Amino acid sequence: MNHEQSISTDLIEFLSGFPELDKDKIESIANMIPVITPRKGTILLKESEIPKECYFVLKGMVRQYRLIEGIERTTEFYTEANGTVSSDHYTDQTPSSSFLECAEDCLLIAGNMKTDGVNYEQFPELAEITRRILENDLNRTKKALSDFILSSPKERYLHFMKTRPELLNRAPLHQIASYLGMTPESLSRIRKRIVSPGS
Amino acid sequence: MNHEQSISTDLIEFLSGFPELDKDKIESIANMIPVITPRKGTILLKESEIPKECYFVLKGMVRQYRLIEGIERTTEFYTEANGTVSSDHYTDQTPSSSFLECAEDCLLIAGNMKTDGVNYEQFPELAEITRRILENDLNRTKKALSDFILSSPKERYLHFMKTRPELLNRAPLHQIASYLGMTPESLSRIRKRIVSPGS
Hints:
Oligomer: homodimer
Structural class of chain A: alpha+beta
Shape of chain A: globular
Strand order of the largest sheet of chain A: 1-8-3-6
Distance between the termini of chain A: 53 Å
Number of strands of chain A: 8
Strand content of chain A: 15-25%
Mean pLDDT of chain A: 88
Low-confidence stretches of chain A: none
Largest interface: A-B, 39 and 39 residues
Number of helices of chain A: 9
Radius of gyration of chain A: 19 Å
Largest sheet of chain A: 4 strands, antiparallel
């Protein structure tokens, strides 16, 4: 299978998850959806740039971070399970406060203002699918915020291990520490205590 | 103006914010949308109940909280500016982990699974509007999560004063403290220090 074929397989697999799309529609939509394959390390968006696109992760990982006093502070890891990469800066067309970096080789749907309208008119099912994706993502993000508000650093780490354990193999610990709202030192301490609670 | 008329005025005002709806459509949709007017203190949803409805706040305030070791821990205030009250428990039809309480007399759009589909087919513009509301709310929630992750308690309070100062007059301080992820004592201390930084 060549590179183009493998992209199309991944996209078709993703679209097949939506029962309202039959085989013909999936093929037409797959041919129309703009997909990009940025390499690990690619910066998709810089601080103070106005976002030109929003993304959905089909494969790989996009990391969102802010630069605070010269230090990268990771606030989100977008992966296959948590794919919608967007922000109010895209919606409002204002300068972004974050960076978006491909933390792995990626396969992304890349939407922009110009193509958005056309798709929905041509395929009304897409509007319903987009709504469902947004709804799920909104619910997940709301839950993440409530959990974050209510939990101690240790509880946050335990919850992370339960819900996103695969990130431990995909991201360095100092980025995970930032994402959990703690210093790398606190994270190490918590991890050590969990492994050997007596020490 | 009687009670019914005043409800319809608020709903029409809300719908008029969407330029794709003309006067006739606004009236038809307003007649179709199910609106409820629960009093302050009404519990819309209890922990371990399966949600039957989702809500959108046109007027008033809905508070979301969890009961943890007998203590109410507030995680969100839904108001006119931040109206979508929904959760994965509604989407998945699983028992809720939170309570939803009307913290003021409310005017709410109350959607349920049965009416959802009908509306969109009859008024395709509603699908586009819903998508935009969801998108805005998702962006706002994502930003709130990033901000929460990156900020100290004092920064969180300052940000709250900048973005949602009206809540200070609408909710008791211990609920605001919980929502900001701190104890009421920490919140008092921060507030005192900001008022008289030398003390």
